[in-house]
Amino acid sequence: MTPLDFAREEDVFASGAYWREYYTELGHENAAAGEFLREIAAPLMPIGGLDLLDAGCGPTALYWALFVPGQNRIEGFDLNPANIAHAERQIAQARAGTIDPSLEAAARHAVDLFGLKISPAEHIRRKAQQIRKLGTGDLTRPWPCEKGRYDFVQSVFALECLPSWESFEFALNQAARALMPGGRLALVNVSRTNEWHCNGMGFPTLNLTLDGMKQRIAGTGLELIEIREVESKDVSVRDQGYGSIILTAAQKPLRASA
């Protein structure tokens, strides 16, 4: 392949190329990311479920909701209206009993993880019912949510696509602001690359490392719970421009430090 031009003109989200390349199959890294969301969210589990925010949800709000256990109340936002439209269409179809086949492998994996005695289709339908509100919003500006509102904030394959480290740190601080004391943040990001690929084009990313992520989490006042890097096996089936992902979890202290 010739060197990729950084994409500016084509919206690979609106065209559906992103979903087709990254979510038609479950894949190794999506399974790892889903398992991580479950791992970090499960210890919180109040009887009434979690208030959950998906920040930079893309078209995948329902996809990642499948992996967070409980009877939750889910909200999300994304800068691209095409992503919100895709997610809302998928949610409406699931509620009506029409399941996107791309979701079934993810739902099957989630059902197995949770030990549920329901079909993948029923799991998708139930999770679709939990998504209360999606809207447009910018990760680099004050987030459209209340301070201290959420038990759980997740952001999957989003923050590394921000334009600068300043905007990345701003988003981390907005996530900390959105969490209630004791709430948790779960991040999934590509690592050790300056670009990711889709539909034969390159898109710039911030070059994340374990040490860099640890330093930036420390700057938010959140307490690091878990951080690890996972080598992606999906490089054998698609040209994605990166070979690893970082999984990061942090918790807001119950009390502010003196």
From TrEMBL:
One example of the protein's molecular function in GO is: N-methyltransferase activity
Q: Name one Pfam family in it.
A: NNMT_PNMT_TEMT
One GO CC term on file? cytosol
Question: Which InterPro entries does the annotation name?
Answer: NNMT_TEMT_trans, SAM-dependent_MTases_sf
Keyword annotations for this protein? Methyltransferase, S-adenosyl-L-methionine, Transferase
GO biological process annotation, one example: methylation
Record CDD domains: AdoMet_MTases (cd02440)
Q: What is this protein called?
A: Methyltransferase type 11 domain-containing protein
Q: Please name the taxonomic classification of the source.
A: Bacteria, Pseudomonadati, Pseudomonadota, Alphaproteobacteria, Rhodospirillales
